[in-house]
Structures are given as structure tokens and as C-alpha cells.
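User: Okay, second chain of the day. Same drill as before: sequence in, C-alpha cells out.
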Amino acid sequence: MRKEPYGLATVRFTQNKELDRLREQASRMLSVTPESFVVVYSTRGFVVVPATSVMGLKAGGELYAKAVDRFFKEYLMCFIGDPKLKAYDDATLEGLRAETNVRTAILFDVEQTVDRSKVGFS
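Assistant: Same drill. C-alpha cells below.
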């Protein structure tokens, strides 16, 4: 992984067998939604690449990736992601998991905390 400007990184995949397995997984993910992403990890950290980019990648090829913090910032701002894949509690998450035929799912519960001393509340 090589760091690029603007929080991007370049990721190189070199092993054909692992790349084939990754492409197979990306294909399954893309059958659920075109807004699928792959988290890539190395000794230098984690980055995120679109699953669609992985599908056309050749061994030794490079992809541009986003740092995890930048990816989730854009995700939470709703710039990326599939609005059809939403869950509000454990029950709807389990229903969505079963409907999409995936092994695991994660629910992010994000709340804004307000420092009341700074907004005039006592």
C-alpha cells in the first residue's frame, strides 16, 4: 500500500489465487448491491476499495483506495451506500441479513452528543 495525496492510497494485489477468491467474493457482494466495498488491510493500515474495481483487476495491478476514516465520513454523510440496505434495530438487521443471504451483518448506531454547556442549556 502506498499513500497518495488527499487521503488516498494505492493498493497492489499480487497473488492470483487470493485475487481470484477476492473477485468471487466481490461478485457475490455486487449481486446484492452495486454499492459494495472491500476493506483491504496490511501492516500499514486499512483502506477501502470499490468491489467493482476489484472485478477488473489483474494480478500485480493497482487500485486507488480511500482511508477508512475518509470512507466512513462519506458513508455517514450519505455520499456513498445503498439506501435500500438499511436497518434500524437488531430485528430489521437480521431480516436484511437473511434476505441478502449473507453470513454476518453490522449495525452502526450513530448518535450526536451535544455539550449542553456550549449551547445555552443548564
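Residues 2-81 form one domain.

User: Thanks, on to the next one.
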